[in-house]
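Write out this protein's structure.
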Amino acid sequence: MIVAGCDVGALTAKAAVMKDDVILGTELIRAGARVVQSATDVMDRLLKRLGLTYKDIDYCVSTGYGRNIMPFADDNVSEISCHGRGAWWLVPTVRTIIDGGGQDCKALRVDENGRLKDFRMNVKCAAGTGRSLEYMAESLGVDISDLGPLSLQASDPVVLKQPCCILTEIEIRHLALEGRDGADIAAGINDITARFIMHLVRDLGVENDVGVTGGMAKNVGVVNCLQQAIGTQFVSFPEDPQIIGAIGAALFAADRARKRA
């Protein structure tokens, strides 16, 4: 039985194909403005690489933005449940997951079977999201992928204080114009991002083990700040953390395919 999961977020589109609970392959691309096109592009690319066609897929579950309109999906599941299921499947001891996405951030808890117990997500502000981090990196004049490594070189990290990510971007530009060290500003950017995320985490409550999924997991600076704030070492996932939502969707697809058989 071959199943697939497709996860289209604000910044990236991801796909995973599994056979008998084994991952055959995954794919990640930059998402465009059109959800259906992004979903089709990432699935086409993965299936071509695996030598498969859509007819070979027994069941497909979609998740993320526009999950209701993906033409090739048999069903859809929320990205919150998919990230929880995927993270637990990869590391069964995980109970708290921080999903740092492009347009929103979520903190969720799962039970010993990977089922969603509770969650929190930002609803009023983009602070603590990948898009906000991207804009702040642009204000500093660096690529978002450089923020983590650059912040590790900081000797006197700045403390950013603005309550809004837009105002924080202005603050960053002023600091750069004043000649503050780029590494110190990068450390401040990662710190304030982690502080925004921690509002959700503290409201939810933490149960070990803890893991970070989504693009935010690739920023070592933010992850280090979160680990220090929570006071525990996070689990390391054996797959790309940005793919975990798609893996969770594929696992839900396998469940539904078995029921249909």
